[in-house]
Amino acid sequence: MLEKLQLRKRKLDKKLKSVKAWRKISFIIFAAAFASVLIYSVVASVVAAPPVAAALAAASSVPVGSMGKWFNSLMKKYEDALRGEKEVISSMQAGTFVAIKDLDNIRVLVDNLEIQISSLLQR
């Protein structure tokens, strides 16, 4: 049981590490997309009419920024769920370890009792 919990904890550690990496990568992608939209709006304002470029920049920058925030919140919730599961597994490991030690103590006491009973029967 303890080995299974340790295996599950290692898997969760790998998932947590992967989520952190994907969160950073997604942040970089959305930041680059937002910056490219801003650069595009500046170029469009120089080339095209300023009112058209301003409307185009305002219309395109809002979805990119809000989508990045939404994706970041999803990743944060998933990361928090993984951390919670990891904490539960850690507490289960501690409980299992205590239970195993208690069972070992009981086994030692039973062995001592068997020795005492056998010595009493021999007398």
UniProtKB/TrEMBL annotation:
It comes from the Eukaryota. One of its GO terms (cellular component) is membrane. The chain crosses the membrane at residues 21-42, 48-68. InterPro entries: DUF677 (IPR007749). It is found in: Membrane. It holds the Pfam family DUF677. Its main location: membrane. Keywords: Membrane, Transmembrane, Transmembrane helix. Coiled coil: none annotated. Belongs to the UPF0496 family. This is Uncharacterized protein. It comes from Dendrobium nobile.
